[in-house]
Design goal:
Strand content: over 45%
Number of domains: 1
Number of helices: 0
CATH class: Mainly Beta
Subcellular location: Cell membrane
CATH superfamily: Immunoglobulins
CATH architecture: Sandwich
Pfam family, one: V-set
Distance between the termini: 31 Å
Protein name: Ig-like domain-containing protein
Helix content: under 10%
Strand order of the largest sheet: 2-10-9-4-5-6
Keywords: Cell membrane, Immunity, Membrane, Signal
Largest sheet: 6 strands, mixed
GO cellular component, one term: plasma membrane
């Protein structure tokens, strides 16, 4: 099976700090990467889809300035939560798909829990 790795796996940071979340496909080339978030007591929501070297497609209501995504090559993508605030506390999940003909095209995913604490020092 294929592996997707996400780093860091958990972040607690001070309000106003930007958080960078990295997603790597370890043993396959991910032509497409998906970024999701799940707010407390809500369903998983697709935020954006990125294809290597192309423009990111954001879902309606997702602000690209708040959540910029970089997908420079077939094994790496990064999501930044800019100026994070308590309302950004969420599970952030990356998923990757290999679209090589004959390959296993099921998305592989990993998640990150982002917790924001207004007065706590940051590891961000």
């Amino acid at each position: 099976s294929a592996v997707v790795s996400q780093h860091p796996s958990r972040v607690i940071c001070k309000s106003g700090t930007s958080v960078n979340i990295e997603c790597r496909s370890l043993d396959f080339q991910a032509t497409t990467m998906f970024w999701y978030r799940q707010l407390r007591k809500q369903c998983l929501m697709l935020m954006a889809t990125s294809n290597e070297g192309s423009k990111v497609t954001y879902e309606q209501g997702v602000k690209k300035d708040k959540f910029p995504i970089n997908h420079p090559n077939l094994t790496f993508s990064a999501l930044t939560v800019t100026s994070a605030h308590p309302e950004d506390s969420s599970f952030y999940i990356c998923s990757a798909r290999d679209t090589v003909p004959g390959g296993d095209q099921r998305p592989r995913q990993e998640l990150l829990q982002l917790l924001l604490h207004p007065s706590r020092p940051t590891e961000c």
